[in-house]
Specification:
The protein is mostly helical and 110 residues long. Helix content is 47%, strand content 7%. Helix 3 runs parallel beside helix 4.
């Protein structure tokens, strides 16, 4: 399973979270492309930011609370697929990872 973390900025919370994830054998996952959809709320800017930083294995951070994000993704997803990328879950992405992610450790593809 995947754990969604809303706010893990507190040091004590980070330590607790790390220990729990180690026990569960689950890695922490961070994004590698910040769409900044929360900041611009402009579908074209969101699209350009994602497309300019797209590379194999990257994780794109988007927020599903903005209509403008949906509008951008209506272009982003087909265009990424047309360029040969696959849209996958984190679990599927891990199946391609080398080395494999380790429970309690941060996994981030650059």
């Amino acid at each position: 399973g995947i754990v969604n973390i809303v706010d893990a900025t507190n040091v004590e919370r980070n330590l607790y979270l790390t220990m729990q994830l180690m026990e569960l054998g689950m890695p922490m996952v961070n994004w590698t492309i910040d769409s900044e959809d929360w900041k611009s709320k402009d579908p074209e800017q969101i699209y350009q930011r994602i497309m300019s930083e797209a590379k194999d294995g990257r994780v794109i951070l988007c927020h599903d609370i903005y209509e403008t994000t949906y509008q951008a993704m209506e272009r982003v997803i087909p265009d990424l697929i047309a360029q040969g990328y696959q849209v996958v879950t984190i679990g599927e992405l891990f199946s391609f990872a080398d080395p494999q992610p380790v429970g309690g450790q941060l996994w981030r593809k650059r």
